[in-house]
Design brief:
The chain is mainly β. Strand 1 and strand 2 form a beta hairpin. 13% of the residues lie in helices and 39% in strands. The chain is elongated, with a radius of gyration of 25 Å.
Length: 276
């Protein structure tokens, strides 16, 4: 089956004036236009292509890889807004359409928007929606506490940053757990810190509890090595100073320092910590 909106591995079947026709295991065919045909090829060679509908709503293949695929999320730039909706740059010649009804906020040219790519059942076309929460659900969770997860930064709130978890669920990173600059569309790893009533997910950018000691200890050692074996930080330091220098909370700093002290890798003095 040739999957619209996804990368397909197909075989070259035959050459025509317009390009080469590709075929899948079920004998479905799709055209790869001349502009994308490799300079050298043989019949039955396998090739990875992205398949979508062209301007005449016909399936067509391309070797260009889009910034987003079906059932995925990505931060895209709006190229144009017309009376029909917005047209987004997704890396292909034909732009990705986002109808007005699927815009969380009215899109503007040159703006960047986090969107979800879906298949319009009425037209069979790929389209975008910035109402990303409509495609997420926490009703039945597929994650557990302390699981490492893939997160996409969604949008800020008064208490933190909302994130998409494993492309399935919504989660929240509280402000006091953010120790680095985050921007909408950023993709990174996180940890499920806590599951609250209603299946609400609290996400941490670092590891939890005892799991967090070793990575933070390594970070402190690296900073010590980069600063001639001395850091002007103690358990009485301002939390903001610790956050700025080490990108961790004061609580995690104290845990990591205690671990390093027990391992006899540092000395703790009134003016800071020293590398042994």
């Amino acid at each position: 089956m040739i999957n619209i909106g996804r990368v397909n591995t197909l075989e070259i079947l035959r050459e025509t004036d317009h390009g080469v026709y590709l075929i899948d295991e079920e004998d479905n065919e799709v055209l790869l236009p001349n502009r994308y045909v490799p300079e050298t090829f043989k019949i039955w060679d396998k090739i990875d292509v992205f398949v979508y509908l062209d301007n005449e709503e016909r399936p067509v293949a391309t070797t260009d890889m889009p910034f987003i695929q079906l059932n995925d999320f990505a931060l895209l730039r709006c190229n144009e807004v017309t009376e029909f909706g917005a047209f987004l740059d997704w890396g292909l010649v034909k732009e990705l359409f986002c109808p007005f009804k699927e815009q969380a906020f009215k899109m503007k040219p040159k703006g960047w928007y986090l969107v979800y790519c879906y298949l319009d059942e009425k037209t069979g076309r790929l389209a975008a929606s910035s109402k990303t929460n409509h495609f997420l659900s926490n009703k039945e969770l597929t994650v557990s506490q302390f699981d490492e997860v893939d997160i996409i930064v969604s949008h800020p709130s008064d208490i933190g940053m909302n994130v998409i978890v494993n492309k399935k669920h919504t989660g929240l990173i509280y402000n006091d757990q953010i120790f680095t600059d985050l921007s909408v569309g950023d993709k990174l790893k996180g940890i499920v810190k806590k599951i609250r009533p209603g299946n609400k997910l609290d996400i941490s950018l670092g590891q939890i509890g005892y799991r967090n000691i070793e990575p933070n200890a390594e970070r402190i050692l690296k900073e010590l090595d980069d600063n001639s074996g001395y850091l002007n930080l103690t358990d009485k330091s301002n939390p903001e100073d610790i956050k700025e220098m080490l990108q961790m909370s004061k609580k995690n700093f104290k845990k990591a320092v205690g671990n390093l002290y027990k391992q006899k890798k540092i000395v703790i003095k009134s003016d800071g910590i020293y590398r042994l």
